[in-house]
Specification:
It comes from Corynebacterium suedekumii. Pfam families: CMD. This is Alkylhydroperoxidase domain protein. The chain has about 400 residues and is mainly α. It contains 19 helices and 2 strands. The chain folds into 2 domains: about 20-190, AhpD-like; about 225-405, AhpD-like. Helix content is about 60%, strand content about 0%. Strands 1-2 form a two-stranded antiparallel sheet. Helix 3 (about 25-40) runs antiparallel to helix 13, helix 4 runs parallel beside helix 6 (about 80-95) and helix 10 (about 160-190) packs antiparallel against helix 19. The longest helix is centred in the middle third of the chain and has 27 residues, at about 160-190. It is globular and about 55 Å long. The relative contact order is 0.15.
Length: about 400
């Protein structure tokens, strides 16, 4: 089976990283199946192959992952005229920025807001559907915490169905994972990776929305359970097909709106879930579960995903992590000191890998090696951080966290 990640990372079959990736076989296989489900589905429906490759070219371009941009632009040419490919690459050149930034809706986090530019793409060259899709792709790439219900409204107005919106969000979010794994593997292989300097886009002159205390919305990062309200209608539990039920992996997820929403693209959901379970639940070697959960929490804190941070902060402590370090991270952010040296190194590496353009480099790896991390540890960290760049974008882009009544 072709492995797009190894291909994009230009790893020869006998490279030690290729062998090391086999330690997480379900993650490896299902990352590939995610690519196939989102970019080469048997039935693309109204989200055409050309649109999928155009979005992938755009996302790879603004991430500045050259091999991926080249591959996806070549695939785009198989399904669309060269004029569209040229329009996509022009859009990339005008959309480069740095992230993550954005404004918080949570009243206790207003002081941490970092406003920046919102890009609205020209429908003249791209068409209304792709222009709206690129608006979402730019937001999810650089400033996912700026997502609002109105973000979905623009897609709906441009003709995107609910199923298409979910597949689009999955595609952009999956690419945030795939491109980070590719970049990280290149760095781990000792290959120099060149990323051009970028300047953050400035604000668009809009007044910031007022933020008020709302008992239904969390005020800040927490480590108790939260609810989540979707902005796109999930599939009704009674209407889930056999394929959709199978994609949930765990039957109890049929009661959770988030998973019933993602079940609108069951092939993508199933592959994503199996990738997730192998990265975090396969404890045969590599990083401890607590270290992986810590990396997920750091990533979520940096991206601004209050929901994901709450789940994985609690899990990091349950798995034996240092409670004080977790609470410091949640309260004060990724720039504050923590007591555990390995966690400090993992935090810095997660931040570097989460930045866009990606800042994970040889110095990052050297710091982790100096803390005693093995190649298996480094891969687990790479996977855990990259995966939560996928998870955060889905949670932030398709809905918002809510506070259960017992915590109000």
């Amino acid at each position: 089976m072709t492995d797009i990640i190894n291909l994009l990372a230009t790893l020869p079959p006998d490279h030690e990283l290729v062998a090391a990736r086999q330690a997480r076989p379900d993650a490896l296989a299902n990352a590939q199946r995610s690519f196939e489900a989102l970019l080469e589905p048997v039935n693309p429906g109204t989200f055409t192959y050309g649109e999928r490759y155009a979005v992938a070219t755009y996302v790879a371009g603004v991430h500045q992952v050259a091999n991926a941009r080249t591959l996806y632009s070549e695939l785009l040419l198989d399904d669309a005229p060269a004029t569209l490919r040229d329009a996509v690459l022009t859009a990339v050149d005008h959309a480069l920025s740095t992230g993550p930034y954005g404004t918080y809706r949570e009243s206790g986090l207003v002081d941490e807001s970092e406003p920046g530019g919102h890009v609205t793409h020209d429908a003249g060259a791209l068409g209304e559907r792709l222009a709206a899709a690129f608006d979402l792709a730019h937001l999810l790439t650089f400033h996912p915490r700026d997502a609002r219900p109105e973000t979905i409204d623009r897609l709906t107005a441009a003709g995107w169905s609910a199923d298409d919106v979910v597949s689009l969000a999955q595609l952009v979010s999956f690419l945030a994972f795939q491109l980070r794994v590719v970049h990280g593997l290149q760095v781990l292989s000792g290959r120099p990776v060149t990323v051009a300097e970028a300047t953050r886009l400035t604000g668009d002159g809009r007044s910031p929305e007022p933020v008020e205390v709302d008992p239904v919305r969390p005020e800040r990062f927490v480590r108790h359970s939260l609810g989540w309200t979707p902005w796109v209608t999930p599939v009704d539990k009674a209407d889930l097909s056999e394929e959709q039920l199978d994609s949930l992996i765990r039957p109890e997820r049929a009661d959770m709106p988030y998973f019933r929403l993602l079940a609108r693209d069951p092939a993508a959901l199933k592959a994503r879930t199996l990738t997730d379970l192998d990265i975090f639940c396969n404890t045969d070697g590599g990083l401890s579960r607590a270290d992986r959960e810590w990396s997920a929490t750091v990533t979520s804190r940096f991206n601004g995903c209050v929901y994901c941070a709450s789940v994985h902060a609690a899990r990091a402590i349950e798995e034996g992590g240092e409670e004080r370090d977790v609470d410091t991270l949640l309260a004060d952010g990724v720039g504050t000191a923590v007591d555990t040296p390995v966690w400090a190194g993992l935090r810095d590496a997660s931040v570097a890998l989460t930045r866009t353009p990606i800042a994970y480099d040889a110095a990052t790896v050297q710091q982790l090696r100096g803390l005693g991390l093995t190649l298996a540890d480094l891969l687990d960290h790479l996977y855990a951080t990259a995966f939560f760049n996928w998870a955060n974008r889905l949670m932030l882009g398709l809905g918002e966290p809510t506070v259960p009544a017992r915590f109000r």
